[in-house]
């Protein structure tokens, strides 16, 4: 909200509001146990959703997400959601910063895409899809 051409919205001004919105979207789409893939700024929605409703997800794939700071390591340690933490080795900002928080998730794996920047899925799409599909296959 407030990015691109979307107007600012009071409904998503708080973490609770962002969790509620994502909850509604998943309900409206009738998605049961989806895999939530979250690049960059979408982390402001996805990370609070993971912390509040992680059991609703089959897995979580944060890609250098925003919104990981300000949450205690203990909150992440309590979650059992399988997670693939992805970022490009050329991302000196959000990728490594998010890893500092997300590495506390007990069921996480990390994939660092060589030769990729912040939008690693754009820079190295084949490597991104290879890592994502290998992770999804492990879920069974």
Give structural notes.
Keywords: Cytoplasm. This is ABHEA protein. It is found in: Cytoplasm. This protein has a single domain, classed as Alpha/Beta hydrolase fold, catalytic domain (Rossmann fold). Helix 1 (15-28) crosses helix 2 (43-53). By secondary structure, the protein is an alpha/beta fold. The radius of gyration is 15 Å and the shape is globular. It has 6 helices and 4 strands. The protein has a 4-stranded parallel β-sheet, with helices on both faces.
Label the CATH architecture: 3-Layer(aba) Sandwich
State which percent range the strand residues make up: 15-25%
Helix content: 40-55%
If you consult CATH, what is the topology?
Rossmann fold
Question: Summed up, what is this model?
Answer:
With 140 residues, the chain is α/β, with parallel strands linked by helices. The longest helix is centred in the C-terminal third of the chain and has 15 residues, at 125-139. Helix 3 (73-77) links the parallel strand 2 (59-63) and strand 3.
Topology at a glance:
Layout: H1 15-28, E1 35-39, H2 43-53, E2 59-63, H3 73-77, E3 83-88, H4 94-102, E4 108-113, H5 120-123, H6 125-139
Parallel strand pairs: 1-2, 2-3, 3-4
Helix pairs in contact: 1-2
Keywords:
Rossmann fold, 6 helices, single chain, 4-stranded parallel beta sheet
């Amino acid at each position: 909200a407030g990015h691109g051409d979307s107007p600012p919205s009071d409904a998503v001004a708080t973490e609770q509001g962002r969790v509620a919105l994502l909850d509604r979207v998943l309900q409206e789409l009738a998605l049961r146990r989806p895999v939530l893939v979250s690049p960059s700024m979408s982390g402001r929605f996805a990370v609070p959703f993971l912390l509040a409703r992680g059991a609703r997800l089959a897995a979580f794939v944060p890609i250098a997400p925003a919104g990981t700071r300000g949450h205690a390591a203990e909150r992440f340690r309590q979650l059992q959601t399988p997670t693939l933490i992805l970022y490009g080795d050329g991302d000196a900002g959000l990728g490594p910063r998010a890893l500092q928080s997300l590495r506390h998730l007990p069921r996480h794996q990390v994939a660092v895409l060589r030769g990729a920047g912040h939008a690693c899925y754009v820079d190295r799409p084949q490597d991104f899809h290879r890592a994502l599909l290998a992770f999804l296959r492990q879920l069974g």
